[in-house]
Amino acid sequence: MRIGAHVRSDTHPVETAEKLGVDVIQMFVQDPQSFDKPQPHPQTEALKASPLEIVVHSAYRINVASLNNRLRMPSRNAVALQAQAAADLGAFGLVVHGGHLREGEALEEGIANWRKLFTRQAEKGGFGVPILIENTAGGEGAIARQLEAIDRLWDAVGDQGAGFCLDTCHAWAGGEDLLGIVERVMAITGRIDLVHLNNSRDEFDSARDRHANLQDGTIDPDLLADVARAAGAPIILETPADGLADDVAYLKEALA
């Protein structure tokens, strides 16, 4: 089992990974709150030379489903640029949130915009790395909160090479029972490329995206370990930094 962690804004990710004892890291390639063009990471050569597997998380501002041109168009451009930056690091994918719509906007239109992301980029030669769509925690206009919506999304993008990232906190907050979640997702997408294994500070179906350390939240940590085991995909912990090392140790023991 490949266990990893999100290293946030760490400027020495290889050393951080070694201290944590992880095999996989997730990182940003730019300010996650901006649409700035990614700049080469100062540790690019060290990252490429290391045995670490790398996945990149896209900027939080990205919303390719949006019906607002002023948000959707820069989002599409940002996905392409960040996917190329991920490829330059040797990453195996770029995680992109499902996005959301405004009140009164039709889910079908947001899903159509997701398909356009892939079909238009295919005309330019495709993305530098696979795009891994992540389920989201909440909001009435969320594109990928519940499995029913993800099913409809996959009907549109499943033949475009899209990958899937399952976030346990998001699923819990979105009202999806984690018992059997892997099997239900696989029945829809046919794949789980990455798991964000996070506990939740809030109750089931809260629609609140607040991560907790594995043994500190409202989700049974044994259930989280079961999800990790069943998925058989690389695991990224996005849990609070103060308890991250303990989370790695707990998960290694639970999966041994």
Automatic annotation (TrEMBL):
Protein name listed in UniProt: Endonuclease IV
Pfam family, one: AP_endonuc_2
Family: Belongs to the AP endonuclease 2 family.
Molecular function GO labels: DNA binding; DNA-(apurinic or apyrimidinic site) endonuclease activity; phosphoric diester hydrolase activity; zinc ion binding
Gene3D superfamilies: Divalent-metal-dependent TIM barrel enzymes
SMART domains xrefs: AP2Ec
Lineage of the organism: Bacteria, Bacillati, Actinomycetota, Actinomycetes, Mycobacteriales
Domain called Xylose isomerase-like TIM barrel: residue spans: 15-253
Organism superkingdom: Bacteria
Keywords (A to Z) from UniProt: DNA damage, DNA repair, Endonuclease, Hydrolase, Metal-binding, Nuclease, Zinc
PANTHER family: APURINIC-APYRIMIDINIC ENDONUCLEASE, ENDONUCLEASE IV ENDODEOXYRIBONUCLEASE IV
UniProt xrefs under SUPFAM superfamilies: Xylose isomerase-like
Cofactor: Zn(2+)
The organism of origin for this protein: Tsukamurella pseudospumae
Keyword Cytoplasm: no
Any one of the GO BP annotations: base-excision repair
PROSITE patterns, A to Z: AP_NUCLEASE_F2_2, AP_NUCLEASE_F2_4
